[in-house]
Amino acid sequence: MNTTVITRVADRQWHALEDDQVVGRGEVWPRLDGRLFLSIDSWHDAAFGRLADAMLADLPRPLYTMVDESDRDLRSQWERAGFTIRRREWVYVLPTDPQVTGLGSAHPPSGVTILPLGEADKDPLRTLDRTIRDEVGARAGWQEMPAEVLPRLDDATVVDPTKYAVAREVESGEYVGLLRVAPVPRQPRIGLIAVRADRQRRGIARALLAEVLGSLHRSGVRTASAEVGELNLAASALFDATGAERAGSNLEVVLH
């Protein structure tokens, strides 16, 4: 029987070896908010278990990872390691054609204009981003938001303003809403859509979505994707109303 040997090959990386051949890899990395997330890729269950044991023995708690909910085998492996479900994210696929989404007639409210992707100024965009993050933190908290939009420890909230469309008040010039797009190959991903608390329920989020999806459609992109926390009913309702389909779900699991 082959003996599996676990070696920590770097500060954040482990290898599982059998007969000097790599049969599994483990990695840990801190997300933007400082939480530690794990990843294990193994050739068989025994290597996964040995890697998990070695990594968990070396690392502080709590620890997190994301699992495709439909991957029952992988989910079971993490559960055997002691991880439990903390939250669920729905994975949406959104059509971009305004004749399908019904967003062709969606316009911002009076006194508000939408700046297309790439036209926002960095300083007011960062101000809005911090305001929205403070508001989220005071309510549900960033623990309920998708991991990729969590606050950064270094407070560098907006790295690339060209990825944002923005709602701006005409009279004051203030930015009051934003939508960020990650240019993932073949299917762009909507990473964040948010409106300042005192400007919500006026159709601003719908207008931002109409602008971005319409722009993608004109450039030949047929669909976009998005992840929405299960408890974010407002975002789910917005996407459902555009004909978006739930293509799956991810689970965030944790070991305390």
From TrEMBL:
InterPro entries linked to this entry: Acyl_CoA_acyltransferase, GNAT_dom
Enzyme class label: transferase
Domain N-acetyltransferase: residue ranges: 112-256
Family annotation (PROSITE patterns): GNAT
Keyword Transferase: yes
Tagged with keyword Manganese: no
CDD domains xrefs: NAT_SF
One function term, GO molecular function aspect: acyltransferase activity
Record keywords, A-Z: Acyltransferase, Transferase
Gene3D superfamilies: 3.40.630.30
Signal peptide start-end: none
EC number of the protein: 2.3.1.-
Protein name (Swiss-Prot/TrEMBL): GNAT family N-acetyltransferase
Species of origin: Streptomyces aureus
Top-level taxonomy: Bacteria, Bacillati, Actinomycetota, Actinomycetes, Kitasatosporales
